[in-house]
What we know:
The protein is an alpha+beta fold.
Amino acid sequence: xxxxxxxxxxxxxxxxxxxxxxxxxxxxxxxxxxxxxxxxxxxxxxxxxxxxxxxxxxxxxxxxxxxxxxxxxxxxxxxxxxxxxxxxxxxxxxxxxxxxxxxxxxxxxxxxxxxxxxxxxxxx
Length: 124
Ligand SMILES: [Zn+2]
């Protein structure tokens, strides 16, 4: 497998690292296994609201979009942090539930709270 950094815009490297750190803290709190988290610029895919990660339901693997590429490979602007971390919470919830039923959304809220604590609850 190639390095995740190969599909990361250079300006997004620090943010990708912060996603990994936040994910590790949240995963520890939630008692989950740390997944592989890889950036995915999703070349050619349009920016559709509320869908910045992939719901693969594959245990232990999360793809997350920090910044899209257009169909020519040109980088677009960075996604806002809140969207990136909302996606992280959504994908963490899929480590336990491989569907979008009510139990998933309840657990997604638990994950979002853990992600928020991981981002803001510790030392600033
Ligand atoms: Zn989903």
